[in-house]
Structures are given as C-alpha cells and as structure tokens.
Amino acid sequence: GTGKELVARAIHFHSQRNKRPFVAINCAAIPDTLLEDELFGHVKGAYTSAVTSKEGLFRMAHRGTLFLDEVGEMNEAMQAKLLRVIETGEVKPLGSDKVHTVDIRLIVATKRDLKEMVKDGRFREDLYYRIHVVPIVIPPLRERPDDILLLMQHFFRKYGAKMGREIKKIDGAVIDGFMQYNWPGNVRELENVVEYLVAISSTDTITEDMCASTVIADSGWEFKDVPLREAKDQFVVKYLDNLFRKTRGNISQAAKHAGYYRADFYKLFQKYGMDPKTYRRRKKLVRTDKIAEAK
Fold first, then answer.
1. Max CA-CA distance within the chain?
2. DSSP annotation of 202
3. What region does 286 belong to: left with phi over 0, alpha with psi -120 to 50, or beta?
4. Does domain 149-293 have CATH number 1.10.8.60?
5. What whole-number distance in Å separates Cα of residue 168 and Cα of residue 215?
6. 53 neighbors 104 (Cβ within 8 angstroms)
7. Which residue has the higher pLDDT, 246 or 284?
8. Residue 86 pLDDT > 80, yes or no?
9. Under CATH, which architecture does the 4-131 domain have?
C-alpha cells in the first residue's frame, strides 16, 4: 500500500527498457501450486488442463522489467527456482526440456523483514543476497507528505480519464483534509478516496461536502496509551487544528467558537506552537492539474 508498484513503474519508465514490457505479479495472491506456472509458463499437455501452451511472466518481460511483489510469501521450493533463474538467466516451462534465455530487470518488493526471515530459516540466505542489491526503503505515506499532492494530482487525472469526467478544480479544504489525514492504508487508501470522489462528482469541481462519507471528513483523535497530561495536549492540538481548518485561520472566529477571549486564545495556540497563517494559504479552489503546486 505504500506505492511499491508505482516506484517500480517509475524505475522502468525512466530506464532504457521503457519501450519494453513492464510485467507485475503479486506473489501472495497466487497459490503456491500455480505460481511456478505463472512465472515460467508451460507447454501444451504439461498437465491435464494444459490444452494450450503458456509463455510465463519471465518470458513476457523479456528485455523489460518484471516486478515481483510480496516475494517474502514464496515457499522454499519457489525460492530455489527463482534463485536459479536469477543466477542463470534461463527459464524452463513446465513439461518442457527446452530452456529459454531471458534478459530482464528484476524488481522485488515485500512488506516483510527478509533479514529476520533469513535468521529464522524462512527465507533463503543466498536468494536474499541476490535480490538485495540496490535496496529502496519506501516509508509509509504519513511520512511522505510531499507525495500526497503528487498522488492526488495523478489519481484525479487517472480516474477522470477512466470515467470520462473532467475534474478541473478542487476545494482547498479537501486538499487540507488529504494533507492532514494519517493514511493508515497508504497509497491504496488515498487512491480509493480519489476514485470515490470522481465517481460521485456531478460537476467539474470537488467540494468539501463531497468528502462527508470519506475517511478524511474527520480523522478524529485516536486514543494512545500515554500519560493524562500528554493526552490532554494531544487533544488540544487536534482541537485547535480542526478549529483553524474550519475558520481558515481566522483567529477571532476560532476564539469565538472556543469560548475564549481573543487575547487568551492567542496564548493558547502559541503555547502549542501553532500558526494560524498556515491555514490561510490554501486557495478556495485549486485546479486539479496544479494540485502538486498547492503547498
């Protein structure tokens, strides 16, 4: 969900292999008994239901890129077969004696700690060192706030084209909501929210009220096992954040809502290092092709 396949695609399309195929598979989604067939293919008659030959993903990705997601879910037998292909550059379809040479860029990904799996004997050490050549660590989306705007822009364009709807503008408050939500489901969750907003849109503008049934409507304050004083501070910060979002940084309105005198309210938000000005910068409406610039 952190966007591993997006990164893999970016590597492929910015490489010299970009005119060749990009082939992706989620190893966790394929039963062990079928994964070998998916990767290496088979010849006609290899087994009872093999009425035609199948090329296999390694051969489909020849001179391009093969992306194996969730490689940590492979069983030991498949790990051994993958290692052999990496070492020899050759694949042999099921039921065939013929060997095919493949030239691919192999990108693998996993949410598991492969180093720990090696220690526990659940992942081959030799395969680990073969695939752990240029590691790329992708942090969760909450740790990459700058990516949120880029992803929003990308997915609004993608789903607008897919559904035949031209979304031209988006309410600044919606962008604020996307930026301030924690995104526990990472890129996949963000993509789903954008798809929903495009699907229910009846005009060319995404407005704040359209988000009422989404996770960004009110991310709320989650209880954590912390001392009472710290929990109180967390609540006040969240409360002030929501208040400034609602009033767009207007101190007088925010103080009125909070039931504070303006001078006392100043002391309150300054105590927590909050700056109302940051809530005023967002334009009322932002063009969807300019979301990435709306910082």
1. 84
2. S
3. beta
4. yes
5. 23
6. no
7. 246
8. yes
9. 3-Layer(aba) Sandwich (3.40)
CA dihedral 172→177→183→185, nearest 10 degrees, is -80
Could you list the beta-strand ranges (E) of 110-215: 169-171, 205-206
Do 154 and 16 contact (CB within 8 A), yes or no?
A: no
CA 74 to chain centre: 22
Domain ranges across the chain: 4-131, 149-293
Q: Measured between alpha carbons, how far is 107 from 181 in angstroms, rounded to an integer?
A: 30
pLDDT at 221: 44
The predicted model gives 163-175 an average pLDDT of: 90
**First and final C-alpha spacing in the chain:** 24
Does residue 55 contact residue 41 with C-beta atoms inside 8 Å?
yes
CB distance 61 to 104 below 8 Å: yes
Q: What is the pLDDT of residue 1?
A: 66
Q: Across residues 91-113, what is the average pLDDT?
A: 94
* Cα dist from 162 to 155, 166, 214, whole Å: 10, 10, 21
Q: Side chain identity at 92, as an amino acid letter?
A: K
* pTM (predicted TM-score): 0.67
104 and 63 in contact (C-beta within 8 Å)?
yes
3-class SS at 83?
Answer: helix
Return d(Cα 65, Cα 206) in angstroms, integer: 36
- Sign of the dihedral defined by the CA atoms of residues 191, 197, 202, 206, in that order: negative
**Distance (Å) of CA 17 to CA 20, 57, 65:** 5, 16, 7
* The predicted structure's pLDDT at residue 295: 62
Q: Give the separation between CA 211 and CA 213, rounded to whole angstroms.
A: 6
Q: What is the pLDDT of residue 67?
A: 97
